[in-house]
Write the structure tokens for this entry.
Amino acid sequence: MNQPLLVTRDLTKSFGGLVAVDSVSIDFLDSQVHAIIGPNGAGKTTLINLLSGDLQPTGGTVTFKDHDLTRQSDFAVSQLGVGRSYQKTNIFPELTCLQNCWLGAQSRMKTSMRFFRPAKAYDEVRQRAEKALGLCGLEGRIDTVASAMSYGEQRQLEIGMMLATQPELLLLDEPLAGMGTDESQKVIELIKQLAREHTVILIEHDMDAVFAVADALTVMVNGRVLATGTPDEIRASQEVQDAYLGTGEDEE
């Protein structure tokens, strides 16, 4: 049986009088795709921001393997093996695909801020960058400037930059947002491929995609966990149907 790779206990985030994440406790198992769904304002992106270190919690804990991430910075979380993509594409459009992934690979190295290093160190960075491009399906676009690519390819590149940091856990925040059918299908297949060697926590509004890739789902409503279970369990839950799946509302 898979063991929890990341665990939250009573994780809470308040913004003044607004409680965006309210006492959330979830076990994210190793080698699974765990999707987080829910209606607008459910607190899904805030939760991902807490897991990645982009936000500091008001209360509760986050544990990744044997590391307490609760008060760690986003850089420290990345160094421990947690990768993150964002709702809006976060790449360097003026750089080539290789250069974008090079920056991701270099950020993970202990000597990332040392500008005079042995040639072997540069070879290692290049190897990591090229491997990441292969993993995200852009091995043939190594010298292509990012701004010249389609939106879907740019989203693939962002995932490639994340993979260049060699993460064990991937946090994907609406990777299909703004894509057409063909581009979405490519990214769905990419997520399936990445899930063979990574643990994935996924926020996505496309329910067909979610149920196609997820091993487990957590439904959030008003900052709290409504239900966690397998796709079949979530589909069958009347409580979930009433709160989200049966309403026709869009994802956050």
Summary: Residues 112-116, 247-252 have pLDDT under 50 and may be disordered. Residues 119-135 form the longest helix (17 residues). The chain is about 35% helix and 25% strand.
